[in-house]
Each structure stands twice: as C-alpha cells, then as structure tokens.
Automatic annotation (TrEMBL):
Residues 15-140 form the Sugar 3,4-ketoisomerase QdtA cupin domain. It comes from the Bacteria. This is Sugar 3,4-ketoisomerase QdtA cupin domain-containing protein. InterPro entries: QdtA_cupin_dom, RmlC-like_jellyroll, RmlC_Cupin_sf. It comes from Hymenobacter cavernae.
Length: 144
C-alpha cells in the first residue's frame, strides 16, 4: 500500500466538467476533452462500462493516486462521492457533454440506468494496489 500523509486535509473536491458541445440538432454534436485543458491530467487509461443492471451499485472504492473523469455517454449515471472529511456530493450525469472529476482519496459509487454507457478517463494505468476497496480502511486512512 502506498504511503500518504494522514491528516493532510488538502484534498481536492469532485466537480462537474462541461465539455464543449459543437454542432446542432440537425447534424449531431461532438464534444472534445483534452488533458491539460478540460481534463486536469494526462490520460493514461480509458475504459467503459455498459449494460449494468439498475439494481447494481458499482465503484465502492477510492484511489490513492488515480484521478478520473466519468462521463455518461448515454443514459443516466448517479455518482455519489464522499470526501475524507465525510462530505457527500451527488452528481447526476445525463448529458454526454458533462463529466465529473474524481480526485484521489474520494470514495465513489455509481448507479446506472440500464442503457447507460460510462466512459472513464484515468490518470494512471490499472494498479490493484492503488484501490481502497474497504470502506473502513478509507475512513481510517484519512481520519481527522
């Protein structure tokens, strides 16, 4: 497990990112996000989830280092985040040109409409040791 300063309360908060929506309803739209622009990190990995049953809650983890931007390319995704100090923020995603930035050290869960497709842009390649999957360990790691 990586070593981080406990009680360092300088963490970032999740926030919405609105990507440009270029086009019109007659021809369609394109949205663009670039690392160093709307996306606050260099993208090292991307993945997507789809056909998730509505009764399933995904996520249920935090990262030590990885930053992510989650986008509902289609459908609806409700992202619930918890900061180390216990603050809970909810982000309903249902527009393809809006994403939510998830910084490290933030517990997050997602619930999907069945037709939702989620695109995730990540700052780090997959590393199992970067995940905190135990909620009590998450609370303990950054307890005041």
């Amino acid at each position: 497990m990586p070593t981080y300063m406990q009680n360092d309360h300088s963490w970032k908060k999740p926030y919405l990112i609105e990507f440009p929506k270029i086009g019109n309803p007659h021809e369609g739209y394109i949205s663009v996000g670039e690392g160093g622009g709307q996306i606050p990190f260099e993208i090292k990995r991307s993945f997507w989830t789809y056909f998730t049953p509505e009764s399933i809650v995904r996520g249920r983890h935090a990262h030590y280092q990885t930053e992510q931007v989650l986008i509902a390319v289609t459908g609806r995704i409700v992202v619930i985040t918890e900061l180390p100090d216990g603050e809970i923020l909810t982000f309903p995603l249902e527009q393809a040109n809006v994403g939510v930035y998830i910084p490290p050290n933030v517990w997050h869960t997602m619930q999907y409409s069945h037709t939702a497709v989620q695109l995730v842009l990540a700052s780090c390649p997959y590393d199992a040791s970067d995940y905190i999957r135990d909620y009590s360990l998450f609370r303990q790691t950054w307890a005041k």
